[in-house]
Amino acid sequence: MHIAEGFLPPLHAVAWGAASAPFVVHGVRALTREVKAHPESTLLLGASGAFTFVLSALKIPSVTGSCSHPTGTGLGAILFRPPIMAVLGTITLLFQALLLAHGGLTTLGANVFSMAIAGPWAGYAVYRLLRKSGAPLMVTVFLGAFFADLVTYCVTSVQLALAFPDPGSGFLGALEKFAGIFALTQIPLAVSEGLLTVLVMRLLMQSSRSDLVRLGVAKLTGGAGAQQEATAR
Amino acid sequence: MTRNAKINTLLLFLVAALAVLPLALGLGDDKEEPFAGADAQAESAITELKPDYKPWFSPLYEPPSGEVESALFALQAALGAGVLAYYFGVRKGRRQGLAQAAAAAAGPDGSASGSAAPTAAES
User: What keyword terms does UniProt attach to this protein (chain B) (predicted)?
Assistant: First the structure.
């Protein structure tokens, strides 16, 4: 989903930058508020950012015969809500743009919009809707992470189709082309990302249940031991 | 192995299978360049759609070779994995400390009330 440096016309680059900026600014505010109100969150915040670091560095083969990488944004969006994930995702994209020549500064706005804003919000929306309907936690986590990943790549396809419409078939023709490259490849990777997010959430349920309860992800009634751990602090 | 550990291992196995199967089945064999990056494919699609498009900005720093680039990607993954491992290590240590404190408070004869039962027993 990384649009390479210089590969968006200046007008598009500026427009996506302007679209992303308010989300990131709002996210920085939400992040400082969270850290001030709950200093004990800092470690879990770092772990959520680290998850995105790992997953977005892994280029994995897919059924289309090409390689792509997961995003790792679903976990942070579910734990800390999407505004904070916008900041964590932006840090990851900046690291890749500056050190790896992966993505770029001129395309940072567009890449932030797809990976750090649209994906996390989509995943979070799926997660919330399913939780409201009473689906089991791990099912909601899987589908939340799945959609955070997949929607990111769909948005990238739309961004490129808007910038480079097909001379004959226009926007839709180009969208078909880019979606064929990105979205199809991404489906098995989104499944992998869902499974890995479930795995980390399971480990968090064992190790940090009281944090998950405070963040509203887990309920307190999950067994006597967990309740005692929560009341012990 | 506990039931928990079995499920976690199964999850990891499924992820590995999803990554290995496309390679094992040779799904990239019909391609000019098997298992190329989707990002690079998008770049060539752009040059197909708009042959006269020239990138108007180039990266400030570009890894000088594929080796350096893969080293930096490995560094990124290692940083992330390190922080995650640190997190889970700290949490585990904290739980064990709590359990030990609770056991000490209960005394050698275990006469104290059950409200401070070891919390790590769950894992």
Answer: Cell membrane, Cobalamin biosynthesis, Cobalt, Cobalt transport, Ion transport, Membrane, Transmembrane, Transmembrane helix, Transport
Query: How confident is the model over A42-92, as pLDDT tens digits?
Result: 999 999 999 999 999 999 999 999 999 999 999 999 999 999 999 999 999
Residue A2, domain member (yes or no): no
Q: Does the CA dihedral A204-A206-A211-A217 come out positive or negative? A: positive
Number of domains composing chain A: 1
Contacts of B32 in chain A (CB under 8 A): none
**What are the pLDDT digits (tens) for A149-178?**
999 999 999 999 999 999 999 999 999 999
Integer angstrom CA distances of residue B27 from A80, A133, A182, A229, B21: 38, 39, 16, 49, 9
Report yes or no on A233 lying in a domain: no
Q: Which of A58, A88, A181 is best to mutate for the B interface (most B CBs within 10 A)?
A: A181
Question: Is A224 within the bounds of a domain?
Answer: no
CATH at residue A105: 1.10.1760.20
Chain A contact set for B67 (CB, 8 A): none
ipTM: 0.88
